[in-house]
Structures are given as C-alpha cells and as structure tokens.
Write a structure and sequence with these properties.
Elements (H helix, E strand, L loop, with lengths): L1 H21 L1 E4 L10 H6 L1 H4 L3 E11 L6 E5 L6 E5 L15 E13 L1 H14 L13 E13 L1
Parallel strand pairs: 4-6
Antiparallel strand pairs: 1-6, 2-3, 2-5, 3-4, 5-6
C-alpha cells in the first residue's frame, strides 16, 4: 500500500514539475512548432504580412492599463515586436516583463505616417504612465505587429 501511495505521489509531483516547466498558457494552444526569428520579420515585414507565425523571446514591455499587449525581443536590448490581442481575450500580467515568451499569431503590416506614429506612441506612453517626445519620430515607418492568438509565459 505504501508503495502504491508513493508511486501516485511521485506521478503527481512529476506532472506538477512538467506543467510548471511548460509555463502559463494564455488564449489558444500554440500549434506552430518552429519559431520565426523576430529579426527576420522586422527585416522584411511585407514578406510575412498576413502569415501565421510563432516567435520566442523575452518580454520587454507590457500594457499596464489592460494587459492587452506585450513587446518581445529575441534577446535583451534587441529589436522587439508588439504582440496585440483583443481587449479582454487575453490579459497579460502587468509584471511579466523579463519572462520568456512563446507567442503565436498573424503578422499585420501597416505603413504609418509621422502623424500616425506620433499618435500611437503618445497613446502607448499614456497607457504606461510614461512621457513621450514627439521629436523622436523622424519619418514614416513600416510597422509589423502580431495579432495574437495564443501565448506561453515562463
């Protein structure tokens, strides 16, 4: 009897460890097995427009108002991409900055004018209680974002 109880306890402990190693899941299950490099997406965003991808990296920022987006970079200090979800569908923890993320969604590419970029960056700064210097926007830009479907944070 003791052996059976020990075996069951060992299985439960192993399952708990495996579940924790996988991380906390948000939204839909991630089905893509091979990650696309964020640097490849940012180097040629139009090539990836409307394609479903999975990226991996470190969370560099998170929406402090509603938890509706995170930015993720392949490495600390590297270029990042925004992973945006419908408000309320996924709510990322406000303290997830620095966590390792696996994110799946569809790439959306937009040509943004100076005025649009200023408005977007100003809005983001307001959401996060930060200041924004509009002179940091020097021209129009092609912007790629991931319209999020599912995520795993570790």
């Amino acid at each position: 009897m003791k052996t059976k109880a020990f075996f069951i306890l060992t299985l439960l402990l192993a399952a708990t460890v495996l579940f924790a190693a996988e991380g906390k899941k948000y939204g839909k299950k991630i089905s893509i097995k091979k990650a696309t490099k964020i640097s490849a997406i940012l180097a040629d965003p139009k090539k990836f427009d409307d394609k479903k991808v999975m990226v991996e990296g470190v969370v560099t920022d998170v929406c402090q108002k509603m938890g509706c987006w995170v930015t993720v970079a392949e490495q600390a200090g590297g270029e990042s991409i925004k992973f945006k979800v419908e408000d309320g569908v996924i709510v990322f923890p406000k303290d997830c900055k620095g966590k390792v993320a696996k994110l799946q969604g569809r790439i959306s590419v937009a040509e943004m004018s100076v005025e649009d970029l200023i408005a977007a960056k100003k809005h983001e700064a307001e959401e996060n209680g930060k200041t924004f210097d509009s002179t940091s926007v020097t021209g129009p830009k092609t912007v790629a974002t991931i319209q999020g479907e599912g995520a795993v944070l570790k």
